[in-house]
Amino acid sequence: MDLSSDNHQNDNSKQTGGGAFMPKLIIILVLLAGAYYFGYQAGNKGFVFSPKEFKLVSQNDQPATVDYNLLWKAMDVVNQKYIDKPVDQQQVLYGAVAGAVASVGDPYTSFFPPKELQNFKTDLKGSFGGIGAEVGKKDGNIVIVAPLDDTPAKRAGLLAKDIIVAVDGQNTQGWSVEQAVSKIRGTKGTPVTLTIYREGKNKPFDVKIVRDDIKIKSVKWEYKETEVNGQKRDVAVITISRFGDDTNGLFNQAVNDVLKHDIVGIIVDLRNDPGGYLQTAVDVASAWVKSGELVVSEAKSDGTSEIFKASGNPRLAGLKTIVLVNGGSASAAEILAGALHDHNLAQLLGEKTFGKGSVQELVDLPGGSAVKVTVAKWITPGGKNLNKDGLDPDIEVKLTEEDITAGKDVQMESALTQFTK
Questions:
Q1: 188 catalytic, yes or no?
Q2: What is the pTM of this model?
């Protein structure tokens, strides 16, 4: 999720039919909410309401008997005996639903109370308030997916895969991504202290960051000089920082400008790109992939799949292309990298990608809340499951913390040398 606004998470919410099991999930949540309501009313009257057992159906259509008496009995005890009354019943309800949704064990399936939902929906608009970093959850930890360029997070030295141990002294163990984002996000000019664990360091350390208003264009391009057969030639470098609302327009501008120049090839820089819209990734891939050919497929929970094909004119297909990736390249960035790689249109250079290859659907619920649920996983044209595993580079070049401190970009330097071969 983008700490600047919000989310990511990005992202990657997709409004679709949601698969066959989505109505079941909604029914479960409705039952849970209704059950809580009756339980609370009963608790206020001093007795425990005892509903009958509900028969729930799992995704595999295997019936499971669940007795919700435990929920209302627990809340009845709290309502009657908790010392600091009154208990905020709205927060209790949100907590109950959030816990139920989180119990599936998927870090990208989560419940949004109204305030968090509004923050989430502002993610990909290109203007944020916060520190300018995307966060996610991996191996049970809250981690930095990618610090965005020219933001407080980047200037403070945060790196992809940094684990956020604490926020302002509060341990993040057991937090959802949304909880972490709500704690880190804040008003411009206010500080937040992140306790970071970084691989290779002996112990966690604190990073104090002052929040700011952040406006980022998702695409920028420039030309870098390299030597080919003794002659100076230009290489176009197109950097995509996320796949948001402005990406298609800016990318088309970049392509138009690149095609006016005499270049020897293109570097697509997807490092620290946390992803964004699926369709935007497909549209960008269509600048290389032949119309009608597969860009990515979705393996859905009901056993079906949906395919996404390139469309339009692949204007960049004849140009040698190197794609820069690292541990902060995630989601839609992995879709683009995987498609170009599997169609033999580009080589991947850098480090293994993040491995966020799943599709979330956002389903609105009563009271301005919503649930975001994983409904599918992404598969590259060559059959690579992007979820968890990520993509391995064809040419591995690691960028060390010492390189970053010294201002050296050895990955970009290596990419430029590929055009001399």
A1: no
A2: 0.67
